[in-house]
Amino acid sequence: VQLQAYGGGLVQPGGSLRLCCAASGRTFSGYTMGWFRQAPGKEREFVAAVPWSGGTGYANSVKGRFTIGRDNAKNAVYLQMNSLKPEDTAIYYCAADSSGYFSDAPGTYDYWGQGTQVTVSS
Asked: Which residues contact 8 (CB under 8 A, 6 or more apart)?
């Protein structure tokens, strides 16, 4: 089972990036899919999640700027990031939670991708 995250890069403040996470090895039908991030010297933090049970959830720091979505046919999850700020700089990880319900706790997620670097700098 693998989660492959890609789409990171260097962007100027105010810019946009679209992260993608493709799952292979099994279907994630029924799973909650989430994005987390970890900046240097900080703990991993929740960014957004799209539960199988419906709806979406976001960290307050990204609400209104980031949008999470999933394509079940492609076994993929996306994170559209707009109005990026330097404090968004981090390694972004996608993850899958077998409960299917909303969770912002890293410990509830069963599978993790390898991460993709996002750097927001002028």
From this structure: 17, 19, 91, 92, 116, 117, 118, 119
